[in-house]
Amino acid sequence: MLDSIPELRDIILSYNRIKTWTHKTPVMTSSLVNELAGCRVFFKCENFQKTGSFKFRGASNVVLQLPENMSRNGVSTHSSGNHAQALALAANLQGIKSFIVMPENAPDVKRNAVKAYGGNVISCKPGLSSREETLANVTRDTRAFFIHPYNNFDIISGQATSAYEFLCENPSLDSIIAPVGGGGLLSGTCLAAHYLNPRIKVYGAEPAGAPDAFKSLQAGKIIPSEHPNTLADGLLTSLGEKTFPVLRDHLERIILVSDEDIISAMQIIWERMKIIVEPSGAVSFAAMLHERKAFKGSNTGIIISGGNVNISQLPFQTQ
Amino acid sequence: MLDSIPELRDIILSYNRIKTWTHKTPVMTSSLVNELAGCRVFFKCENFQKTGSFKFRGASNVVLQLPENMSRNGVSTHSSGNHAQALALAANLQGIKSFIVMPENAPDVKRNAVKAYGGNVISCKPGLSSREETLANVTRDTRAFFIHPYNNFDIISGQATSAYEFLCENPSLDSIIAPVGGGGLLSGTCLAAHYLNPRIKVYGAEPAGAPDAFKSLQAGKIIPSEHPNTLADGLLTSLGEKTFPVLRDHLERIILVSDEDIISAMQIIWERMKIIVEPSGAVSFAAMLHERKAFKGSNTGIIISGGNVNISQLPFQTQ
């Protein structure tokens, strides 16, 4: 397991470790979208990854490295989102138990998805302190191995395999945009791009209603997320001390987008590309459209982070 | 232009004629869907075809064959659906005008799509007689070349290229299911499968609320569609005298499915595959699920015919 920022060889090792368990996700393009965007847009479709998001890469990368004496009591985490499903399946595929702490107000559809992937769901009261306390109790009682959703170098290295695959298939990309919540995907993207082609600019895309990463990079230190307010529910968390320095050193900058921009980008992807992305998964394309001029005429890579959305509760206006 | 049922060489010629203008659509699979279905399911994704449906294949196949003296006054058709958009773009890409007769109560979203692809929309009163009368007037006034949505051997040969591509990529298919409205796609699928591997069984999938093809094959003659009632709005039309004999001679049989089955199949495809299919595009998968036993353990090909759906008016129950 890594105890420092992943090197290129670590990312390649991660890629080779997980590749028989993960999907090589497709890169999609659309001439209509290119016209609309004023550049050539390449969508790396992690919504087609197993469990519907890139999170399965990082979770698999950790689970597949655990020696028997660390995995025999299972793995644990707290998450109400895509990391929960990803860890449940990654563990289950290796015959490892998983204990997932979820707030009691999490939607049934998410709780059931974790259970369907073989996870044990433990409910807690909403709020970070209850989540952490419950997790500490669960981890103490079960002796499960705790796997943080993003503040973990092996998670970062696993998420970096998305950009690694992307750039191996599309070496002509001028820039890549990825969404930022805790920074696992974005820091991995920064590292893969930096190692494979340092001329590629990597941008973060963040909801204006949860701008803690933007503020953190401005301040030069981690500013925690406070009262985030956005429908991009995968991007509410704060940066960690393992992801922040990577962004500080390698990120071009962060582009903030409104929820209206996110819905509009999501609608274009649904209608034009005919693929399902969740709001958090549309944020990077929203950022590209918001700063059209900066990307004009270039080859722009967009990481679509996930596609887990409740299709009976959509943000599109009913006509 | 063909004046009889397409031979294998005609389908190959069609494929080579259109292939630089059309997408080679991907074949997608999902281990979760396979578990659910009890067989290996291969989805041929015509929702990713240009204009969002297989109709672009047939329309392109006709437009690309028109000599200058037949195309100089444009092309015409009546359609409120996918053939309208397909013909508008296929013509536009060759610098040919198109005149599309649409009922005045067609949704704005469909009218605007045809216009966006460069088509001229002519409104008529709802109902077949008004459609045909308006089309006759338009064709007389403009001298445009009329292209029927399905009762045309070159359209059939163009639609056959979907199954041709499908079988070239997946020769191990035991069966293929395609939806049936007027029968252009289904008869083309029957022909391609018959020529490439006569052991493959081809099934038609039809909404129980519009069962005219089912009745026609039972009766041994074309029974027109009367008062169809289904949300699969691409499958309301009657068979034509050019499509019926192909189905009579080569189709295994037709599987009828309820609208509830269609919505449920559509929801599985959206949630599990993360791709957008329209109700008519989900009918073939609904048929497979409805007759699970018949396909158990086999390699089943499902043609997803299209993905043009108004995402602000979805049939999924709001939670």
Description:
2 copies of one chain form a homodimer. Chain A contains 14 helices and 10 strands. Chain A is α/β, with parallel strands linked by helices. A 6-stranded mixed beta sheet of chain A has the order 1-2-10-7-8-9, sandwiched between helices. Chain A has a 4-stranded parallel beta sheet with strand order 5-4-3-6, with helices on both faces. Chains A and B meet through helix 12 of A and helix 12 of B.
Element layout with pairings:
Two copies of one chain form a homodimer.
Chain A: H1 8-18, E1 27-28, H2 31-37, E2 40-45, H3 55-63, H4 68-71, E3 75-78, H5 82-93, E4 98-103, H6 108-116, E5 120-124, H7 128-142, E6 145-146, H8 153-169, E7 175-179, H9 184-196, E8 201-207, H10 212-219, H11 244-250, E9 253-257, H12 259-273, H13 279-290, H14 292-295, E10 299-304
Parallel strand pairs in A: 2-10, 3-4, 3-6, 4-5, 7-8, 7-10, 8-9
Antiparallel strand pairs in A: 1-2
Helix pairs in contact in A: 1-8, 3-5, 3-8, 5-6, 8-9, 9-11, 12-13
Name its key features.
homodimer, 319 residues, alpha/beta, 6-stranded mixed β-sheet, 10 strands, globular
Provide a short characterization of the protein structure.
2 copies of one chain form a homodimer. Chain A is α/β, with parallel strands linked by helices.
- Greatest interface and its participating residue counts: A-B, 21 and 21 residues
The sequence of SSEs of chain A as H and E is: HEHEHHEHEHEHEHEHEHHEHHHE
Q: How much strand content do the residues of chain A show? A: 15-25%
The tally of strands of chain A reads 10
Put simply, the count of helices of chain A is 14
Overall pLDDT level of chain A: 96
Poorly predicted parts of chain A: none
Rough outline of chain A: globular
Structural class of chain A: alpha/beta
Compute the separation of the termini of chain A in Å: 52 Å
Quaternary state of the chains = homodimer
Largest sheet of chain A: 6 strands, mixed
- Rg of chain A, Cα atoms, Å: 18 Å
